[in-house]
Write a structure and sequence with these properties.
By secondary structure, the protein is mainly β. The chain is built from 1 helix and 6 strands. The longest helix is centred in the C-terminal third of the chain and has 4 residues, at 73-76.
Length: 90
C-alpha cells in the first residue's frame, strides 16, 4: 500500500502513539530500529499490530511495545519482512 491510515486502539504505544488517534503509514518506506511499524501478527495473520522496531536481525523484525505490560516479540515471535505492512509516521 502506498499510503494508508491506521487507528491506534490500545495504550501500549503511549506516549508516542495516542489511543484513538489516526496516523499516516506507508508501505513504501521500510521501518528501521526505533520506528513504529504496522504488521500482521505472526501467530494470527488476521490481527494487525503497531509496535516499535527494537532490532532487525537476518530479515526478522523484533518488536516492542512502549509499556512493560505490552505484547512484544517475546509473546508472538519475530516478524518476517513480508508481514510488515508499513512504517507509521508519528
Amino acid at each position: 500500500m502506498l499510503l494508508f491510515i491506521v487507528r491506534v486502539e490500545g495504550e501500549s504505544g503511549w506516549p508516542a502513539l495516542v489511543p484513538g488517534r489516526r496516523y499516516l503509514a506507508s508501505g513504501i518506506f521500510v521501518p528501521g530500529v526505533g520506528d513504529f511499524a504496522v504488521f500482521r501478527n505472526p501467530r494470527d495473520r488476521q490481527q494487525i499490530f503497531i509496535k516499535r522496531v527494537s532490532r532487525v536481525l537476518d530479515d526478522q523484525y523484533i518488536m516492542n511495545g512502549e509499556r512493560s505490560w505490552a505484547s512484544s516479540s517475546d509473546d508472538f515471535g519475530s516478524v518476517p519482512p513480508d508481514y510488515i505492512l508499513g512504517k507509521v509516521f508519528v
